[in-house]
Amino acid sequence: MTGFTALPDLAVRTLGGSVVAASDESFAVKENLLNPWPPAFSPATFGPKGQEYDGWETARRRPGADGDLGHDWALIRLGLPGVVRGVVIDTAWFTGNFPPYAAVEACAVAGHPSPADLAGADWTEIVPRSPLKGDTAHAFPVDAGRRFTHVRLSMFPDGGIARLRVHGTVVPDPAFLTGLTVDLAALENGARVVECSDMFYSSPDNMLFPGLARNQAEGWETARRRDDGNDWALIALAAPGVVRLAEIDTTHLKFNAPAECALTGIDRHGAASPLLPRTRLQPDTRHRFRLTSPEVASVRVDIYPDGGLSRLRLLGTLTPEAERSLTTRWHRLAGGAG
Predict the structure, then answer these.
(1) Which of 65, 207, 287, 288 could form a cystine bridge with 248, CB 3.0-4.6 A?
(2) pLDDT tens, position by position, 155-169
(3) Is the pLDDT of residue 338 over 50?
(4) Are strands 220-221 and 101-107 parallel, antiparallel or unpaired?
(5) pLDDT per position as a tens digit, 135-155
(6) The Allantoicase domain covers which part of the protein (predicted)?
(7) If you write DSSP's letter for every residue of 217-240 in order, what string do you get?
(8) Where are the CATH 2.60.120.260 domain residues in the chain?
(9) pLDDT tens-digit profile of 264-299?
(10) What is d(CA 312, CA 186) in angstroms, rounded to the nearest whole number?
(11) Residues 6+ apart with CB under 8 A from 238
(12) CA distance linking residue 145 with residue 9, whole number of Å
């Protein structure tokens, strides 16, 4: 992954994204748009509605009384609200039935709005009406510079789209972080893996996903090392804070868990402090450790020699300065929208 596609997909289903409404889904359901896996296709798999597609496909539109074809749309709630840096509209496997054009709008609405509530929202065009090709992933950089909670995908006039990816930077609501014990390493709180030694099998950001991993593919796993080194990942925390408890989870990693693990905290000036010494791990186990931590802005996790982690949680509290910084950023990018 390069450019904006290296950023988290704010809309993917595994991060809580949802297609809350669509104009039509006659041939293939709207929920497929946010599936986390690459689009799949099996030829000659015909169901009651025709060829089955791993995507969203609408009926063929016909002109109304006024001669207007209209267009189809899907309304998506982002699992992680944030600043959108780029959108991918993927027409994989749609060759004779893809839409010739598509556009994307975005809005920010507080609380938990219904589709009817969103109808009157202040929508901003982030991808103008653009031509599409069949069986192609179309990447569109976005430079809107503000936080969004929902996007609306429109295709003109109809057809099939396999996936919508909405890549960006998470901007959490400080109301759910300040004055509380929180997971400083959670992707949903704004943490990110900024460097790692190896991501052969899966992205290290997977360690920071919400919930429990359902299988070994939903964590971070490296290739087998054939040297004397070890694998590692550097996590920029949601904001500087004090880590009180670490949870290192090797669930589902039964034959490829690391033998040992260590944690090192790094403050905003680059000074390093040991948080957890090199410690033995067990396969398929949720390990928890109380920590005594200085204020840190990032944490390096070292695994020995290689293997994988299902989840990494770093529970703690933000520094007063970090709380003020998050609140300032929130008002600058969101204007107080939730």
Answers:
(1) 287
(2) 999 999 999 999 999
(3) no
(4) unpaired
(5) 999 999 999 999 999 999 999
(6) 16-170, 190-317
(7) GGSEEPPPP-SS--EEEEEEEEEE
(8) 3-170, 174-322
(9) 999 999 999 999 999 999 999 999 999 998 999 999
(10) 8
(11) 172, 177, 182, 183, 184, 185, 186, 189, 190, 191, 318, 326
(12) 17
Euclidean distance between CA atoms 170 and 185, whole angstroms:
13
Our measurement of the distance from residue 104's CA atom to the centroid of its chain's CA atoms, rounded to an integer in Å, reads 18
CATH of 174-322, one of 3.90.180.10, 3.30.980.10, 2.60.40.10, 2.60.120.260: 2.60.120.260
99-113 pLDDT, tens digit each: 999 999 999 998 999
- Give the pLDDT confidence of 206-231 residue by residue, as tens digits: 999 999 999 989 999 999 999 999 99
For residue 129, what are the contacts with CB-CB under 8 A and spacing of at least 6?
101, 102, 103, 154, 156
* Structural tokens at position 15: 């991060």
- Taking the alpha carbons at both ends of the chain, their separation in whole angstroms is 30
Instruction: State the SS3 of 38-58.
Output: CCCCCCCCEECCEECCCCEEC
Are residues 48 and 138 in contact, defined by beta-carbon separation less than 8 angstroms? no
Mean pLDDT, the chain, rounded, equals 94
Q: State both tokens at 67.
A: 């001669």
Nearest to 319 by CA among 276, 274, 277, 265: 265
Task: In whole angstroms, give the CA distance from residue 151 to residue 140.
Answer: 14
Contact criterion met (CB below 8 Å) for 185 and 191: yes
Q: What separation in angstroms does the CA of 79 have from each of 6, 9, 44?
A: 17, 9, 34
Q: What percent of the chain has pLDDT over 90?
A: 88
Residue 252 has pLDDT above 50, yes or no: yes
Which residues touch 144 (CB under 8 Å, ≥6 apart)?
83, 84, 106, 124, 126
